[in-house]
């Protein structure tokens, strides 16, 4: 062993230490935050499918289900999205009062502090349901339960801080927000200039050691109405009042917004969404050191604290909203396509409509599968950082595609705004999800594979830690141990990838999963190919790989597809292998496999070391990218899942906010049910070639009762396809001043003619 270490490993160790790129503190803390889970299995190249399938499903307790069917439904009934964003520009006051009283802000806070003590899955389900009624309300509820003072206090707060602040957050006496993003620093938090200088000062009539803060934050959700601001800033100790260091690093603290120097209240208008969001400033705001979350010993540890909290929050809030958006799009678009006729037939029969409709349906199936699987990990106490990044990126991106498809199928119905437009505001909200909690461009190009390659790889992090060890001998020994395990792993992966690629995965490991068994084999094949290509890319590029963002993004796409497809398989298994849902699973698999093979081809075409690229092509893609995507048959069957009332449709779109009112969504649901119920009657009328239902009754084709049913269905459809229009003075204050607009323009024309 010592011969290997001293003769073989030592030169490699010395070389690697010389080329290992420097890592900033913020990069290291981001890498170390959170946990690895199923992503680590995928990185091995030989995933243990039994581990995935044995993962307990995320479920609700009786108390959580009662909350979903009680207070959540009550809140949804209070909300009118058109009035919220067009008239009020805010939630109604009774909704704010209800949200506080029913402890929506305290869902994740333990019961011992007055919260509801709900699981991550319950949090997700609540956000998901509210999202289908009001985006503004969903964002209002989800933010305090995600990244913010509550989460940070629960994880890192002192006992005194928890006992003081958590009960106030739970019952709504305090409304929280968190200030991270500043004009100088968006994704690059290390560049923030917001500062806190440790000094002596007077607080509540006594002299204490504290922080004098100056900051400027923006894009802060709930910021305009917050009473308790969680703040990220850089702490400095120029007079060495707490230690020898002068620059302490990023720190997080609690700032009651009534303190002198806090400027808060102005609002942003993000993509015309009216959830409370805005900038805030602090000028020479003084707080005692015990307002630092976790107390004095947590000075400078803020970035790691934030990244750890974000590892959970990114996997819940926006993925829940996105899964809701896709399910809502599937239900409404399927219903609208079914009832809307053009050229004498339902537009759902046009293949040009079926293709995007199938994409919406399968996206809804996959996103909810991934949401549930991620929540299962979170329920088990795992905080999967890489998977949370995958979820945030791909959930919001795929929601964008689903909503765009829904807009295309609805046509003018979704374009014309008004109380009866049930999808337009969701379309406007999409860019917000794409941008917040880490811009998707950054997440795709730098984070998923960059963080995943180090954290989820079986040996890479151990090797990097050994190389960075200040004790050279200890580092050499640790590196020797990890490096040769890595070499053995790489050779095993090489042979595994070669065998599975050349046999098209025919003998790859897979559980007995009925019709889905071949899909597991292909994922095992792609996992081995991914592990091998990642290893050789890291070997040949080293630290330069993080500057090859397009390559990193392609690797990240493959890892993401492996996770999302795993989730879809897990869902199909957990739901009892529903035969009707298999078309959605087939669509997901065919599309995912197509993406994976395309990304492999792009990696091999662009890998700088052409010799290694040629070897890899021979091993992992000898026959090129061959998967073409879902067949027309699969597209047709997938689209049909939402075109008739069925158990499959309900499984695909469960627990949406159904309010029996006069909203556009409620009208659509009623029309859909009536059209489906009268389908056989309508077919008899068409077959008889009669003018209308009354003529059909006269000629004995249908009964009077059947004719009236048909008339009710036609009336309901007419109500749905109508779009809103407004008197000019209802849209512009200009016209309120000039009275009759038509008369105004007529007189203006007469004046011009006379002149």
Describe it for me?
This protein folds into 4 domains: 17-146 and 316-655, Butyryl-CoA Dehydrogenase, subunit A, domain 3 (Up-down Bundle); 175-302, Butyryl-CoA Dehydrogenase, subunit A, domain 2 (Beta Barrel); 664-721, no CATH class; 726-754. The protein is globular. Strands 1, 2, 3, 4, 5, 6 and 7 form a 7-stranded mixed β-sheet that branches. Strands 8-9 form a two-stranded antiparallel sheet. It is α+β, with helices and mostly antiparallel strands and 755 residues long. It starts with a helix and ends with a helix. Its cofactor is FAD. Its EC number is 1.3.8.7, 1.3.8.8. Belongs to the acyl-CoA dehydrogenase family. Residues 300-447 form the Acyl-CoA dehydrogenase/oxidase C-terminal domain.
Strand content: 5-15%
Mean pLDDT: 92
pLDDT < 50 runs, ≥5 residues: none
Domain count, please report it: 4
- Name given to the CATH architecture of the largest domain: Up-down Bundle
What is the CATH level 1 assignment of the largest domain?
Mainly Alpha
Helix content: 55-70%
Question: What is the radius of gyration?
Answer: 29 Å
Shape: globular
The description of the largest β-sheet is: 7 strands, mixed
Structural class: alpha+beta
Helical segment count: 34
CATH superfamily of the largest domain, please?
Butyryl-CoA Dehydrogenase, subunit A, domain 3
How widely separated are the two ends? 104 Å
Let me know the number of strands. 9
User: What is the CATH T-level topology of the largest domain?
Assistant: Butyryl-CoA Dehydrogenase, subunit A, domain 3
């Amino acid at each position: 062993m010592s011969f290997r270490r001293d003769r073989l490993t030592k030169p490699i160790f010395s070389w690697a230490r010389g080329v290992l790129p420097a890592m900033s503190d913020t990069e290291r803390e981001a890498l170390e935050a959170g946990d690895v889970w199923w992503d680590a299995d995928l990185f091995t190249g030989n995933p243990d499918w039994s581990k995935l399938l044995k993962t307990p499903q995320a479920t609700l307790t009786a108390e959580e289900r009662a909350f979903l069917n009680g207070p959540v439904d009550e809140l949804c009934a209070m909300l009118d999205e058109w009035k919220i964003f067009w008239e009020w520009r805010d939630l109604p006051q009774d909704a704010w009062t209800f949200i506080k009283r029913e402890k929506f802000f305290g869902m994740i806070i333990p019961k011992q502090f007055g919260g509801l003590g709900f699981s991550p899955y319950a949090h997700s389900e609540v956000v998901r349901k509210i999202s289908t009624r009001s985006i503004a309300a969903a964002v209002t509820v989800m933010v305090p339960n995600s990244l913010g003072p509550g989460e940070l206090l629960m994880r890192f707060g002192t006992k005194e801080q928890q006992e003081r602040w958590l009960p106030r957050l739970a019952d709504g006496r305090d409304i929280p927000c968190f200030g991270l993003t500043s004009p100088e620093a968006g994704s690059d938090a290390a560049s923030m200039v917001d500062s806190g200088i440790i000094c002596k000062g007077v607080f509540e009539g006594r002299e204490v050691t504290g922080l004098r803060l100056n900051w400027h934050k923006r894009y802060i959700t709930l910021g305009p109405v917050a009473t308790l601001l969680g703040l990220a800033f850089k702490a400095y100790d120029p007079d060495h009042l707490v230690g020898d260091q002068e620059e302490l690093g990023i720190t997080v603290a609690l700032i009651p917004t009534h303190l002198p120097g806090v400027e808060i209240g102005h609002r942003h208008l993000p993509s015309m969404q009216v959830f409370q969001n805005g900038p805030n400033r602090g000028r020479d705001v003084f707080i005692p050191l015990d307002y630092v979350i976790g107390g004095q010993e947590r000075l400078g540890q803020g970035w790691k604290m934030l990244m750890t909290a974000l590892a959970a929050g990114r996997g819940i809030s926006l993925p829940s909203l996105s899964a809701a958006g896709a399910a809502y799009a599937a239900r409404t678009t399927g219903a609208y396509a079914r009832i809307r006729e053009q050229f004498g037939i339902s537009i759902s029969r046009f293949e040009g409509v079926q293709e995007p409709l199938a994409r919406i349906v399968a996206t809804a199936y996959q996103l909810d599968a991934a949401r549930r699987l991620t929540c299962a990990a979170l329920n088990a106490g795992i905080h999967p950082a890489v998977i949370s990044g995958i979820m945030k990126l791909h959930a919001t991106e795929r929601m964008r595609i689903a909503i765009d498809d829904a807009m295309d199928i609805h046509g003018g119905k979704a374009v014309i705004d008004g109380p009866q437009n049930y999808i337009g505001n969701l379309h406007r909200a999409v860019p917000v999800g794409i941008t917040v909690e880490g811009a998707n461009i950054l997440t795709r190009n730098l984070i998923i594979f960059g963080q995943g390659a180090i954290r989820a790889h079986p040996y890479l992090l151990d090797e990097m830690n050994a190389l960075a060890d200040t004790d050279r001998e200890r580092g050499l020994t640790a590196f020797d141990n990890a490096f040769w395990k890595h070499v053995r792993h790489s050779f095993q992966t090489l042979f595994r990838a070669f065998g599975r690629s050349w046999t098209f995965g025919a003998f790859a490991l897979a559980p007995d999963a009925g019709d889905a068994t071949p899909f597991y084999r292909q994922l095992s094949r792609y996992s081995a190919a991914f592990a091998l290509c990642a290893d050789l890319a890291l070997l040949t590029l080293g630290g330069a790989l993080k500057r090859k963002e397009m390559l990193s993004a392609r690797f990240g796409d493959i890892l993401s597809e492996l996770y999302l497809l795993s989730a879809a398989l897990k869902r199909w298994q957990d739901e009892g292998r529903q035969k009707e849902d298999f078309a959605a699973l087939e669509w997901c698999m065919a599309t995912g496999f197509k993406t994976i093979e395309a990304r492999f081809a792009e990696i091999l075409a662009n890998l700088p070391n052409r010799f290694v690229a040629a070897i890899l092509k021979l091993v992992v893609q000898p026959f090129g990218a061959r998967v073409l995507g879902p067949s027309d048959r699969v597209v047709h069957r997938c689209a049909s899942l939402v075109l008739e009332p069925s158990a499959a449709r309900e499984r695909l779109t469960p627990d949406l906010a159904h309010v029996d009112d006069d909203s556009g969504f409620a009208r659509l649901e009623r029309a859909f049910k009536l059209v489906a119920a009268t389908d056989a009657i309508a077919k008899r009328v068409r077959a008889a070639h009669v003018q209308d239902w009354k003529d059909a009754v006269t000629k004995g084709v249908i009964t009077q009762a059947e004719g009236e049913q048909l008339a009710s269905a036609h009336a309901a459809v007419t109500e749905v396809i109508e779009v809103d229009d407004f008197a000019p003075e209802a849209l512009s204050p200009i016209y309120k001043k000039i009275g009759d607009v038509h008369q105004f323009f007529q007189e203006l024309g007469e004046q011009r003619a006379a002149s």
